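dumping this here so i dont lose it
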């Protein structure tokens, strides 16, 4: 993952030529933000653990030097494609996560021709690393294998 910066959110430039985070799958949305309470940047990125899609978190004091990513949004060995983690603006000590989950063993439409079902789930955390996952999907609908992420 490379670091880019902008003074106005219109004109962007590389902060350095080399990637700043190199561990991870980087095949879906990855996000980073400044945690005002901890005084550091957090980067939530997609990876694999034991053959299952997962989300890891890395930390940085300056957006250039990052820690080794730690396992974060991993629950019940479910495939988590995206994470959509953000601090809750009314209580920034709480992190909300809206990951897209893929369940290869579930099928909604047998005629679809591909195994699996995608849905969105809701998770929350007080430390940004250990998340509590709520059992039910965050949406009533579930989709077939290749659908977009939940709206957050």
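and the seq i came up w/
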């Amino acid at each position: 993952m490379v670091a880019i910066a902008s003074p106005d959110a219109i004109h962007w430039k590389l902060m350095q030529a080399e990637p700043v985070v190199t561990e991870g799958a980087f095949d879906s949305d990855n996000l980073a933000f400044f945690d005002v309470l901890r005084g550091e940047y957090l980067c939530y990125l997609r990876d694999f653990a034991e053959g299952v899609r997962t989300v890891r978190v890395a930390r940085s004091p300056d957006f250039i030097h990052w820690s080794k990513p730690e396992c974060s949004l991993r629950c019940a060995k479910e495939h988590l494609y995206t994470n959509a983690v953000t601090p809750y603006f009314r209580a920034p000590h709480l992190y909300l996560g809206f990951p897209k989950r893929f369940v290869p063993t579930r099928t909604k439409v047998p005629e679809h021709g591909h195994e699996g079902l995608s849905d969105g789930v809701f998770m929350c955390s007080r430390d940004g690393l250990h998340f509590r996952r709520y059992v039910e999907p965050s949406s009533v609908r579930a989709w077939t294998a290749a659908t977009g992420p939940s709206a957050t």
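Residues 121 and 136 are 7 Å apart (CA to CA).
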